[in-house]
Every structure is written in C-alpha cells, then in structure tokens.
Amino acid sequence: MSISAKDVKRLREMTGAGLMDCKKALQEANGDMDKAAEILRKKGIAKAAKKADRVASEGVVTVEISPDFKCATISEINSETDFVAKNENFQELAKKVTNHIHSSEFKSVEELYESEIENSKFEEYMKANIAKIGENIVVRRFAKLCAKESGIVNGYVHMGGKIGAIVAATCDKEEVCEAIKDLLKDISMHIAAMNPKYLDEESIPESVIEKEKEIARSQLEKEGKPANIIEKIIPGKIKKFVQENTLLGQKFVKDDKKSVKQVLDEAAKKAGGSAKIVEFVRYELGEGIEKKEEDFASEVAAQIK
Question: Model pTM?
C-alpha cells in the first residue's frame, strides 16, 4: 500500500527512528501506526535511534588474548553512564563484541558495523542491545596485534576496564617467547600505569625532539645559562625525555632499578636467547571524548521527558 510522507513523519516523531525504517515499518504494518511503532521497538530501532545522539563516554576497555598467545585484541566500548558499564548485560555484550573483533580481520569500526554477528547485521545487533540495556552504546575503537612465528603477545586490563594495554614481542627462539610470556603481561601492566608515548628513541618524531630542545634551551636561557653551557646541557635533557617517554627507556614499574628493556633482555638471556618488543597499544576509557556536563536535576528531567 501507499504510505504518505505525513505518516512517515508522524511515526518518526513518535519513535525517533530513521525515515526509511519508519517507511518500511508502516508498509509491513499496512499503515497501522501503533503496529508500525511496535515493529520498530521489537527491532530495537526506536529506542536506539532516540539514544544515538547522546554522549557515550563511560564503558569498558576489554582485552582478549588467543590461547596460543599469538594474537591480542583490545577494544573500547562506550556507554553513557558508569552504572550501565558495570551492568552484567553490558559486560557480556563487551566480551561478545571483542571476541567478534578478535576472530575477524576488521580494519575499521565502519567495517565492523557492516559485519554479521549471531545471524544479524552488527549494526542491528547493537541497536537491539541498546534497546535492551537502555543507553546509547558505541564501539569506539579497537586494535589487534598478531605475532609472527617467532613472536608472542600478551595484555592487561586495569581498574575493572578503565585502562587496557596489549604488547607484542619477537624472539630468536620459541622457548624464549614462552619464557617471557608472563613478563609481557607485567609489561602490559607497566604500559597501563606509566602511559609511555613511544616505543623507543627511534619511534619519536624528529619534530618532537626539536621541540623539546627548544623548550630546554628557552628554560636554560631564562636561568641565565651561557650559550656554550646550554648546548652541553641539552643532550642530557633530551636523554632524560627519551627515558621518561619511551616504553623501553622507562623504569620498570615492578623494579625501578632497571628499565623495561633491561628487564626484558635479562629474562630472554636467562632463557637462552633474545627478545624485542615491537609494538604496543594502550587505551584509556573516554580519553579525548568531550563529556556533556549536566547536574543531577537536569539529568533526571532529561530522562523523564
């Protein structure tokens, strides 16, 4: 039957669903407005659409490691409130989504949302869960590290999912990889706690080093240091910057007498070989998201509108 634009508009205002979803629901319901609204609710579209523009800055960072420690996946899945983030349904959803990412080769969040999960399009699956849980939920980002034959990965989640990290290393022998497996979890813990910006000195862009030199030079000039002395001091300042901001240069969180590199080298040597960290990823929940500030009264009023 023919569906009028006026009816589509009315259903959209009732449910908050998209125009095409409203048109399809009305066609399925033979123009019956209440039945169409029910169809949208059953599909999870109505509630999901109404919540889609609300800021999701809470949630959980989840890590999944393959049984053979060859692949690690980290994801950040956001909800609107910490209350929902602690909800069992949300926690289970986060695990399922991370497992889905882990078992696939998605390159982007957009690609993930186009995929199939539990015989449904992922986007529709998320809408159904948004309707069930009652808040906007988004998969914000994810990353996957996979080791080659002579490599190993591990990861760590801190503070119940507030921060997570995964790390990958290569080894000259498989037995060395096995020997450093647990250490890599400790190094992931270090990454979560100390937030290194770079892997090693070679990973730092030259522009960053030059900027640090400028800052150091300006500070020393203000202190009245002569130019020839300044040039002698700057290399030491840069060395300290590298140590403090690179994973391999930082003092290990579980033994501050040694750097992360020293600890790894010693463990690999003890196992009869060598190992090298090649990559890491650290997610902190909500970093970079602008949270909408509302007082409690306003929040309650918004919920009951």
Answer: 0.77
